[in-house]
């Protein structure tokens, strides 16, 4: 599989993950700013991508990708004869054949969809296109994580051409773009063509907030806010549980002293941050806030930060 799927696709692959693609897009924005180049992004969202995979087209794609016939036959048997019915009230409709969609929860489904998506990109001939961002002699015009596809170019017209190619090839195999969720991130307003999607100044890319100017301070503030919500919810649940045990059993169990849950939320994608003094102070303040909540030390207790730590 790895020899057929290029590095542009990081979804469900060994030693690859969402953070890699977040790092890639941040690095591209940074390099574009360094060389004073405009960069245009299109974040494509497919409508029910995994549910729209056509089985017959999938088998043909696997054959074109060079998958051995005996493996394709095994997959055919796995998907053959699938039926479903719809229950309405106390009645059920007639049974019907299922000819689309990969199996939910099956580990093979992830690989099958990657082949399906790669077939679209190959037919769109994105690798052969001269459009995109040129870095270290390599032309980069797309980044993918499963069905999350990001197109990039140095001009409006180039981005339009890439989007039209991908849209056309996607519709040929049954995948349709969700216009409401497809976003364009550009250094300025799009004027040369009527876009299919909303123009935005920032975008939540694989769980991380990406801005057109590459400023990470917004993402750090967002992460700290999310972590505070997590810590508040967890702390209230744990404290009620411990107090209930202490009251019912006459015991005094120690209070939890672990802010790891909150920091795992904060530090997601932190490899790409450029931390200034202001952000450093915010992170330190969040750590102290976590400890004070876990130890039930109010701000009116007049205890120094050193005594808390």
From TrEMBL:
Residues 1-210 form the Reverse transcriptase domain. It comes from the Eukaryota. Gene3D superfamilies: 3.30.70.270. Coiled coil: none annotated. Pfam families: RVT_1. Belongs to the beta type-B retroviral polymerase family. HERV class-II K(HML-2) pol subfamily. This is Reverse transcriptase domain-containing protein. It comes from Muntiacus muntjak (Barking deer).
